[in-house]
Amino acid sequence: MELQDLDKTEITEFKAPILYVDDEESNLRIFKTTFKRHYQVFTALSGAEGLEILAENEIHLIITDQKMPKMTGIEFLERVLPLYPDPIRIILTGFSDVEAIIKAINTGSVYRYITKPWNKDELKITIDKALETYTLQQENKQLIVNLREANEGLERKVVERTREIEEQKRQIEAQSTELTLSNQKITDSIRYAQRIQQAILPEMQQIEAFLPNSFVLLRPRDIVSGDFYWFHESQDKLILSAIDCTGHGVPGAFMSLIGSDLLNAIIKVRGITNPAQILQFLHEGVRNELRQDINSNQDGMDIAICVIDKQMGYMDFSGAKNPLVSIQKNSANPITIIKGDKQAIGGGEIDEKRIFTKHRIEAQTDTTYYIFSDGYQDQFGGTADRKLLRKGFLDKLQQAAALPISDQKDFLNTFLVEWMGDANKQIDDVLVIGFQLRN
Fold first, then answer.
1. Options 3.60.40.10, 3.30.9.10, 3.30.70.100, 3.40.525.10; which CATH number does 202-435 get?
2. Under a CB-based contact definition with an 8 Å cutoff, are residues 111 and 87 in contact?
3. What was the pLDDT predicted at 3?
4. Does residue 16 sit in helix, strand or coil?
5. How far is it, in rounded angstroms, from Cα 236 to Cα 307?
6. Partners of 327 in the β-ladder
7. How far from 192 is each of 179, 184, 253, 262, 429, CA to CA, in Å?
8. Which residues, 6 or more positions from 120, have their beta carbon under 8 angstroms from its beta carbon?
9. What is the pLDDT of residue 415?
10. Is the CA virtual torsion 193, 199, 202, 204 positive or negative?
11. Which of 47, 200, 388, 408 is placed for a possible disulfide with 71 were both Cys, Cβ 3.0 to 4.6 Å?
């Protein structure tokens, strides 16, 4: 069939379906006239009518007036959220009470709160960004599904191979060749898991594009790691985090996938950049994902997270057990330690609410900032075959800080290898991140 023979409706550009709810018919008419060329616009004179439209149509974006009879915009969004959680939600109103704004954000998960009268061009930009967020959210959900399916398949393979090994141990020595092959299959499966885990880690080039004076030292104890790092760049923020999950090896790697998925949902999808709030939502997310309200599972993670303001020259820090260390050259008191809160992410009592502290740090010249897991300081080694401990680790960081940032990673890695020597194996995953905000 030639292109000219196709019905025109078959090649019409897709228009995202959006719903506008307002109790004034003139507002609905103006809105639809303004935007019908760009979107598939549905309108409703009340919240009840809006719910009927949602029940019959796939809607990507909901825009609602706040002050309406019978059902306010916030009440309407509260009804929508459990039934239709995917559409992005915007309040468009002349009612600008601050408490109403806060309630809309907290209870209706509102993406934007826009006051009337609206500007056509500005509103279109906001709608387009909201629809981009909707698309990203749907892609992220599919990615999480794919990752979980891959994880479940990997877990089944590991269980199956382990069962095979246990059976093979009871077989005669003549079967040792078969046992060796089976062990190789297990290793191959775990190395496949390593590829999945590495795929979720940020590329170092991506971090260096925004933090050129930085390094990441990651040494898994096993093929896969329970330590991981996370990075995101938005219009005005850089978010960098070091996370230490419960366990190591395959169990720790599973926890790292859960943690990465949750950070994507909290920061990239929901747009939350306050580090204390990120940790609070991460804690709730871990408890929900692991169903810790109905079982005895207490797994979780320790985390240090920095949110750097690219324009204002400061960063906000919050920690769940893990600290932020800064070391300034040529200073009488070079080391500053900002402790994280004593509570971890995940576990705890059912009704326990965890509130985390946000610390603001002004960027200093000749200063290197470090976030890390506890694997480095807990490593056994040296002539006395003991742990390095916190003091020894801080001494090494201070020595590293005197070097150019490009040499610090090799310095720390070389010392750790020499500290372990030939007699000691690495007992935990190791993660150290260093960065400078000003030269």
1. 3.60.40.10
2. no
3. 42
4. coil
5. 10
6. 335, 368
7. 20, 12, 12, 22, 19
8. 34
9. 97
10. positive
11. 47
Helix (H) or strand (E) holding 77: helix 73-83
pLDDT < 70: residue spans in the chain = 1-12, 95-108, 170-183, 350-351, 439
H or E stretch including 231? Answer: strand 227-233
The structure's pTM equals: 0.60
Round to whole Å and give the CA distance between 81 and 350: 24
Tell me the two tokens of residue 112. 């934007």
What percent of the residues of the chain are helix, what percent strand, and what percent coil, each to the nearest 5?
45, 20, 35
Closest CA to 39 of 63, 16, 19: 16
In contact, 301 and 346? CB cutoff 8 Å:
yes
Backbone angles phi, psi at 91, to 5 degrees: -95, 125
Residue 118: Cβ within 10 Å count: 19
| Per-residue pLDDT at 107 | 60
Burial 307-335 (b: 16+ CB within 10 A, else e): bbbeeeeebbbbbbbbbbbbbbeeeeebe
Mutual orientation of helices 249-263 and 120-169 as an angle, nearest 10°? 170
- What's the rounded Cα separation, in Å, for the pair 320 and 345? 7
Query: What pLDDT, on the 0 to 100 scale, is given for residue 8?
Result: 46
**To 5 degrees, how large is the angle CA 245–CA 356–CA 274?**
95
Distance between CA 225 and CA 218 in Å, rounded? 9
Query: What is the rounded CA–CA span in Å between residue 284 and residue 296?
Result: 16
Class of 16-118 per CATH? alpha beta
Q: Extract the tokens encoding 20.
A: 């506008």
Provide the 8-state DSSP code for 430. Answer: E
Report d(CA 215, CA 344) in Å as an integer: 25
**42: amino acid identity, one letter:** F
The one-letter code for the residue type at 11 is I
Give residue 367's Cα distance to chain centre: 27
Amino acid identity, position 223: I
How far is 395 from 384, CA to CA, in rounded Å? 18
